Amino acid sequence: MRLLIVEDEPKAGDYLRKGLMESGFVTDLARTGPDGLNLAIEQNYDLILLDVMLPGIDGWEVLRQLREKKETPVLFLTSRDEVSDRVKGLELGADDYLIKPFAFMELLARVRTLLRRSPLREADTMSVGELEIDVLKRRVIRQGERIELTAKEFALLHLLVRRKGEVLSRSLIASQVWDMNFDSDTNVVDVAMRRLRAKVDDRFDKKLVHTVRGMGYVFEERD
């Protein structure tokens, strides 16, 4: 699932982004109101985490303009704890309101709850052939055997399964899983793919991860 954080405080934004990515989410970060609004409108997100006090335009205005175009779920993150502020956010179309400071585990629980409510949310479980993924529990099973993956390996597999049948370029994989621009001198994607294959493919007869020469990788069941 893909999330957007709109937070101008550098440490808070970086902390949230790191924690959510380690929890298996593809996460973008904007540090101003205009940048956040532009990303929220131009890209498709499953959930937006939105601060109220932002440079450029505040979170209230970001939400107001967003609601003219999209119904993406929004979780407000703010130190403003007045009842009138919470009511204002909810009336503008926010789906939840979390007051700073908060524990990351509470944030994660709220995020997962909102994603479960969303009619457009991704399925909790996914499968390709004999491979099954429990997205919420971050559990991978093939032929009844549980496969242990690192956070990055799970994020990589999750991306491949979500886009099964599509040829994914190395640059797209690098941007989605590592949030980095792909450098042709860097073999991080190929190394990670070899490690993933060793866990999900090598011991099984039917292979699911396939290299498309000169283009990238595709995840699919073949006869």
From TrEMBL:
PROSITE patterns: OMPR_PHOB, RESPONSE_REGULATORY. Residues 2-115 form the Response regulatory domain. The keyword Secreted does not apply. Keywords: DNA-binding, Phosphoprotein, Transcription, Transcription regulation, Two-component regulatory system. The keyword Transcription regulation applies. It holds the Pfam family Response_reg. Gene3D superfamilies: 3.40.50.2300, 6.10.250.690, Winged helix-like DNA-binding domain superfamily/Winged helix DNA-binding domain (1.10.10.10). InterPro entries: CheY-like_superfamily (IPR011006), CusR-like (IPR006291), OmpR/PhoB-type_DNA-bd (IPR001867), Sig_transdc_resp-reg_receiver (IPR001789), WalR-like (IPR039420), WH-like_DNA-bd_sf (IPR036388). This is Heavy metal response regulator transcription factor. It comes from Actimicrobium antarcticum. The lineage of its organism: Bacteria, Pseudomonadati, Pseudomonadota, Betaproteobacteria, Burkholderiales.
